[in-house]
Fold this protein.
Amino acid sequence: IAALVQSDAALSGPVATAQSSVVFTVNFGADGPKMTTGGTPVADGLLYGLKVSAAGANSGLVDMATGQNVLLYTNAAGVVEGRAGGSGGAVVFTLNINGATGAVTLDQVRAIKHDAPDGVAGGTDEVKALAGGVLSVVATATDGDLDKAENTFDLGGKLQFGDDVPTVNPSGTP
């Protein structure tokens, strides 16, 4: 899966998307894929979801406004929310997946705290990524006689948040 990259500059702008289905290969065997789940058509007998390792898992990110760790929760609609400090904290980002296609969408809502790895603040090297082992894409395959198989893909390092930097431009003559 390609990295989903957002920037503090895009807080009110476009979301980042990537296709998670490319990381999974399925062999349904002689039974073939189940084509419906509860009457709903299933693309190739395969469904996708997101899995947080535990409610409140630490994403490895820090909310810029509060200085609190961004913790992961799954809401009632199945959308993963990164929240500042806890389940009642401000939403910092959301991650959604299309269950039929595996398309993953990242929407950054608040700024993330960035470090300067080269020691010089304001460079383009200031990218923070989701910690490993806390959030995965889950693919569940169901064959024609309802046998199921499941596998996961860790999104650690694949959700990336770049820093925006201030700019100063001349506006004309005084």
Notes: The longest strand covers residues 135-142. Residues 104 and 124 are 25 Å apart (CA to CA). The radius of gyration is 19 Å. The chain has a mean pLDDT of 82.
